[in-house]
Specification:
heterotrimer, A: alpha/beta, Rossmann fold, 4-stranded antiparallel sheet, 10 strands, 26% strand, globular, B: 303 residues, mainly alpha
């Protein structure tokens, strides 16, 4: 069952064409990776799906609903959750309240403050932040804040999770931890995941299918193995054919 | 202080306040009026500025509008109709200007609100000028005691409003959008609607307070009723007393009314200089205000 | 409108514009380099005006000379403020970030202190003095000598500052700081020193504007507010941090105000200024000539 359909989507900012005629589908329960050099349009794509920007052309359909014209909070209510490339925690709130807020307002809102807090604690346990629950979010390390971003997105109860470079800036150990967390979340919560990533090793391990963007266009799609072997991808992304 | 202790303390204060007109003369009732006025104004202000972080430096506009409505309607309508009407007028203004005004962020919002209040003041002056009036005298105004009890009710309502909002889901949404507005939208908080609602709620009671105070002075004069010093006082009380919970504005208002009573008659400039000095000192050294220092909560308390 | 009146108003608009430009330049630099919205800026104008007044009344010193003293005094005040309070805002700590968010309130408090200290010291009665008020005629336009002097000095100073920003190495450093703060540090700009200089320069230019204004207008402790608002209108219209844009916008505002008041009445001057202020903040916060976005 197709959960997300991106149909011939284009986006321009002034004179710059950030995305041009991009189309793809994401099946429910799938993990789809998005790859591309900086400026390829990956985060723009997420902004369009999450509703922070409107497409200049094309349609985005999520779970049967057209997303055009909807505000971000409405799209969240429908079931789309996202993390930000540069983390945006609610710094002055505690870790638990950060996640609890998402549980209280998201796609599957908890009926009370206490219920939201309970759900928050469950999700925090899954990402390994349970001991920091009462710390202020802004006191966490980068790795902690990235996991908090993830926890907050998951706590909204949305079916589709948009992860934007969630491994960026992490040490190899932290990357491995994050990888395990994402895989666990996917398995236990039956989430559909669309993940932008530069850390190739993690992306190849995680994604079942990968989409490659280059200068705003979709140039390839396939399994990780297919993408690794794709000469065009090598040209655009790795800069030159493999020997 | 635990919530129940706070509520009990507030109830005692309320009872003591209610007894004031029975035991004190006009002078002290007047001081009480000032105190209640600023409690009502500052508590209402925190519903917007304390919770959302959109600091309003022009809140006097709601107070002034309420007073103007009261001055216009006095003699035509009974008191029981005028006070709510003044509140509704302020609410209407907030809803009218809210959408464009709340799109502006950070310090620009602060100076914008100041500009809006000054603009309103000059517009009212111009309107009154066109009507041939430079001030209005309000005859047969209600007695001091009546006004006192109305203001006590308003102060209590404002305090209750702040407490209720803070404990609610709406309040949590406001706190989240204060921390990061874009992220708040992403987790499902309808930020535009919530900001507008907070703005409106913060305007309602000040409008009513304005109507009471204009009747207290029995005299309507735009420069007085739209005086930016009132906006400034509200902000200073909130900064010094603290705006993170219900106790802060009470502390701030009490402190400043006391200070003003000591200094205003003899040296108003010294009072103002002290106000400015306190604002500066607290902004730099104690931005969370006194209430947090005197009544510390563990991190992540009931806010 | 007949040509005589038009000429007269144009001359007045130019003078007003030049003074607004000089006042706003400092505010623009303060904002551009340190993101500080100095709502006490108009009060610096007031200080400059009082320095000129007292220098003239007590020492028979021309404002064109005493403006140097006004500038020095204001620069000193700026330095004291910088070392005393503002420096805390830039050490990168959590306290520093909170302070930046509250810097506007900080300046508001300072404004109140300065205004009321002046009122306490000098009383609130407006004062004025006569200097260079012989009337000169240029064709159909009559203008007093003090206005010509004010215009000339203001314009000279504005161009001087533009040249400084363009050609002098410190001026370049200021521009670098406005554009990319972190990058400026990496290429060796001594941020602290440049910030201090900017504060002193910004405060000094405002005080000089005040000395010039005192020749043509009444002065009082609370005269600063309208200048603060006008300066904000100017820097937002011209694009925040865009000094050239600000100068252009100042003349635009001067024209708007002069002709606007002439077409309506002086009672509407405040409504005009505050109206424009509110409008540009809401409608086109990036200004007419580009700059930072301040609304979503």
């Amino acid at each position: 069952m197709t959960l997300l359909a991106v149909e011939r989507v284009g986006k321009s900012f002034g004179g710059i064409q950030a995305l041009r005629d991009v189309s793809f589908e994401v099946e429910a329960d799938a993990i789809v990776g998005i790859m591309g050099a900086n400026g390829a349009g990956k985060t723009t794509l997420f902004s369009l799906v999450a509703g922070h920007e409107r497409p200049s052309a094309g349609e985005i359909v999520f779970d049967g609903c057209r997303l055009r014209g909807l505000r971000p909070h409405e799209i969240c209510r429908l079931g789309v959750a996202r993390t930000f490339q540069i983390v945006r925690p609610f710094g002055g709130l505690t870790v638990e309240d950060n996640v609890g807020t998402a549980a209280w307002f998201g796609a599957d809102p908890a009926p009370s403050r206490a219920a939201a807090a309970r759900r928050a604690r469950e999700v925090l346990a899954l990402v390994g932040l349970a001991e920091r629950a009462h710390a202020l979010a802004e006191t966490l390390t980068l790795s902690g804040q990235k996991r908090l971003e993830l926890a907050r997105a998951v706590a909204t109860g949305g079916k589709l999770l948009l992860l934007d470079e969630i491994m960026a800036g992490l040490t190899p150990t932290e990357v491995a931890e994050m990888l395990a967390i994402v895989q666990r979340l996917h398995a236990e919560r039956r989430l559909t995941i669309l993940i932008i990533e530069h850390v190739m090793k993690a992306l190849m391990q995680l994604a079942q299918r990968i989409i490659v963007l280059h200068h705003g266009e979709l140039i390839a799609t396939g399994t990780p193995a297919e993408i690794s072997a794709n000469p065009r991808v090598h040209e655009c992304y790795f800069g030159g054919a493999r020997a | 202080m635990r919530p129940n202790a706070t509520a009990a303390a507030l109830a005692c204060l309320g009872i003591a306040a209610a007894a004031l007109p029975l035991v004190a003369g006009d002078y002290f009732i007047g001081v009480g009026l000032s105190l209640l006025m600023y409690v009502a104004l500052t508590q209402s202000w925190t519903v917007l500025s304390g919770l959302t972080g959109y600091v309003s430096l022009g809140h006097v506009v709601f107070y002034g509008l309420g007073g103007y409505v009261a001055a216009l309607c006095w003699g035509e309508l009974p008191l029981a109709a005028i006070v709510p009407l003044a509140g509704l007028a302020a609410l209407a203004l907030a809803v009218l200007i809210g959408l464009p005004v709340l799109r502006v962020r950070g310090p620009y919002f602060v100076i914008l609100t100041f500009g809006v209040a000054e603009l309103a003041k000059h517009l009212v002056i111009a309107i009154e000028g066109q009507l041939g009036r430079f001030s209005r005298v309000l005859f047969a105004a209600p007695g001091l005691e009546t006004l006192f009890y109305i203001l006590l009710a308003l102060a209590a309502a404002a305090t209750a409003l702040t407490a209720v909002v803070r404990a609610s889901r709406f309040g949590r949404g406001l706190l989240a959008l204060r921390e990061n507005e874009e992220a708040a939208e992403t987790v499902g908080i309808p930020t535009v609607r919530f900001k507008l609602l907070a703005f409106g709620l913060s305007a309602l009671i000040p409008g009513m307070v304005g109507s009471v105070m204009v009747l207290r002075s029995t005299y309507f004069e735009p420069q007085q009723l739209f005086d930016p010093v009132i906006s400034f006082s509200i902000v200073t009380m909130a900064v010094v007393g603290g705006s993170d919970d219900v106790k802060g504005p009470l502390l701030g208002a009490a402190g400043f009314v006391l200070l003003s009573e000591l200094l205003w008659a003899s040296a108003p400039q010294i009072y103002m200089i002290l106000l400015g000095l306190l604002l500066v000192v607290f902004v730099v050294f104690m931005p969370d205000g006194l209430a947090r220092r005197l009544f510390p909560q563990r991190h992540g308390g009931p806010a | 409108m007949d040509t005589i009146l038009f000429g007269q108003l144009s001359a007045a608009a130019l003078v007003t514009g030049a003074l607004y430009a000089l006042t706003a330049v400092g505010l623009n630099l303060l904002y551009g380099t340190m993101r500080l919205l100095n709502v006490a800026h108009g009060d610096l104008v007031m200080i400059g005006a009082y320095v000129a007044f007292w220098a003239f009344s007590l020492l028979a010193l021309s404002p064109l000379v005493s403006l140097l003293g006004a500038a020095a005094l204001a620069a000193l005040f700026g330095a004291a403020l910088y070392y005393g309070l503002l420096r805390r805002m830039f050490d990168g700590s959590r306290a520093a970030r909170r302070l930046e968010a509250n810097s506007l309130l900080l300046f508001f408090g300072i404004s109140v202190i300065v205004q009321n200290a002046a009122a306490l010291q000098f009383s609130a009665t407006p004062r004025a003095f006569q200097y260079l008020d012989e009337v000169y005629r240029f064709g159909n336009v009559a203008i007093t000598g003090n206005r010509i002097a004010a215009f000339a000095i203001a314009v000279l100073l504005c161009f001087g500052i533009l040249a400084f920003l363009r050609f002098h190495v410190v001026g370049l450093a200021i521009k670098a700081l406005i554009q990319r703060r972190d990058a400026a540090a990496i290429v060796g700009v001594n941020i602290e020193r440049v910030q201090l200089l900017t504060v002193c320069l910004g405060f000094a230019t405002a005080a000089v504007a005040g000395s010039l204004v005192s020749m043509t207008e009444q002065i009082s402790p609370f005269m600063g507010f309208p200048f603060t608002i006008a300066a904000f209108v100017v820097i937002i219209l011209g694009g925040l941090g865009n000094v050239t844009g600000g100068i252009a916008a100042a003349f635009l505002l001067g024209a708007l105000e002069t002709f606007g008041v002439a077409l309506t009445s002086s009672a509407y001057r405040s409504i005009l200024i505050y109206g424009v202020f509110v409008l540009i903040l809401i409608v086109r916060p990036q200004g007419l000539l580009g700059g930072r976005r301040i609304a979503q």
